[in-house]
Amino acid sequence: MNINQLVEKFEAQSIAGGDFNHRNHLRVAWYYLNHYSITAARERVHQGLIKLTKVLGAEEKYHRTMTDFFIDYLLQVKWYLNTDTWDDVEARCDFLLKDARALIRIYYSESVIVSEQARKEYVEPDRLPLDRATLQLQPEEYPVYDLQFHDSPIIVSMPHHGQFIPHDVIRQMLPTAYDSADTDWYLTDLYGFLDEMKITRINANYSRYLVDLNRDKSGEVLYAGADNTELCPSSNFEREPLYAEDNLPDSEEISRRIAHYWQPYHDRLQSLIERTKEHFGFCLLFEAHTIQSHVPRFFEGRLPDFNFGTNNGATVNTAITQLLEDFDTQEYSKIINGRFKGGYITRHYADPDNQVYCLQLELSQITYLNEQLRVFDQAKAQKVQVVIRQLMEKLLVDLHK
């Protein structure tokens, strides 16, 4: 039966016990999450289950904590996949659908989840909190990066796109790390037109809280005299600590993170640049970033919408410099080499004398997000995507002149 028919039967308590399996539990919860607030959705699921299990004579099967966990998990999935379509959940969430027992044991110990207290009332996870940094869609570790390769002179790099933190690391961190608040949210959605334009994209999967791919692995400061976050940040943008003072990553742990997470991204980026330069004779590395519109730690007031960085012109040629000056961002404000002049990647890989150009765009998140919830705003995004795509089109034309 389709999801609407399923919900109708659920609400009428007319669904047979054998038909209301784990998958259909999840489908009902998914429907409510997409039609009601989280509070209302949670209440509808719980009240419906209480009534249904009573009708079926299976009241002992109602489990408050498991029900809440899977509602919360689906909400995280909804945010991460940026979707309201159940088919997307089916396609990406095998772990949830096929081995829910193993999944819930990541977050709860056996003794807690089978306890009578957990059955009757909600109990917080005792092994690992469920949040954006700890969401696990599959039993295996996430790859360091995802790559969508096309035969293009432009490479779009997204080093701060990742939200995940390995569970062995996050257990050493404070709760301020759990929501990966300083992520460059939804970049692959915002730049979803890249495949259509046949432009290569590489994006990180792990949070900058683990290791910042846009910092020199030597630890050298990026902006001299300014407030900087470290290679392995010790605090978030609000200056809240990510670790207890006696539990900061030591040099051995930092070296491990460099080897396992920083180096593979940079090795692949270097190989992409070399291949592109060899094939086309030139290459443009476009660093795609976003940041909250107000971050007092780094700048006063509201950030301009489009912040272009070329290290004061040192990472591009005169043609690209002129293009950026002339480019019309329409209703959006812009600045070139303001607070953001281009990070480590932009500066490190640029070699304009050999036709390797690097450009950073730091876009204000107010242009495409609900900033309070850090979720994608489709209406906002569609408008700003038009401008970003026009920029890409102009850059392609300029590079081929």
Strand order of the largest sheet: 1-3-2-4-7-5-6
Strand content: 5-15%
The proportion of residues forming helix, as a percent range, comes to 40-55%
The helix-and-strand class reads alpha/beta
pLDDT average, as an integer? Answer: 95
Radius of gyration: 24 Å
Uncertain parts: none
What's the number of structural domains? Answer: 2
CATH architecture verdict of the largest domain:
3-Layer(aba) Sandwich
Order of helices and strands, N to C? HHHHHHHHHEEHHHEHEEHEHEEEH
Please describe the biggest sheet, giving its number of strands, its sense, and whether it closes into a barrel.
7 strands, mixed
CATH class of the largest domain: Alpha Beta
Please report the total strand number as a whole number.
9
Molecular shape: globular
How far from one another are the termini? 57 Å
Query: Helix count?
Result: 16
CATH topology of the largest domain: the name is Aminopeptidase
CATH superfamily of the largest domain: Zn-dependent exopeptidases
List the helices and strands and how they pair.
Blueprint lengths: L2 H9 L10 H12 L4 H18 L8 H18 L4 H7 L1 H5 L1 H8 L2 H4 L2 H5 L24 E4 L5 E5 L8 H4 L16 H4 L3 H4 L2 E5 L46 H30 L2 E9 L14 E4 L8 H9 L7 E3 L7 H6 L6 E9 L4 E2 L4 E2 L1 H22 L2
Parallel strand pairs: 2-3, 2-4, 4-7, 5-6
Antiparallel strand pairs: 1-3, 5-7, 8-9
Describe the structure.
This protein has a 7-stranded mixed beta sheet. A two-stranded antiparallel ribbon has the order 8-9. Helix 1 crosses helix 2 (22-33), helix 2 (22-33) crosses helix 4 (64-81) and helix 3 (38-55) crosses helix 4. It has 2 domains: 3-120, no CATH class; 145-399, Zn-dependent exopeptidases (Aminopeptidase), CATH 3.40.630.40. The chain has helices at residues 3-11, 22-33, 38-55, 64-81, 86-92, 94-98, 100-107, 110-113, 116-120, 167-170, 187-190, 194-197, 251-280, 318-326, 344-349, 378-399; strands at 145-148, 154-158, 200-204, 283-291, 306-309, 334-336, 356-364, 369-370, 375-376. The protein is globular and about 75 Å long. The longest helix has 30 residues, at 251-280. It contains 16 helices and 9 strands. The termini are far apart. It has 401 residues and is α/β, with parallel strands linked by helices.
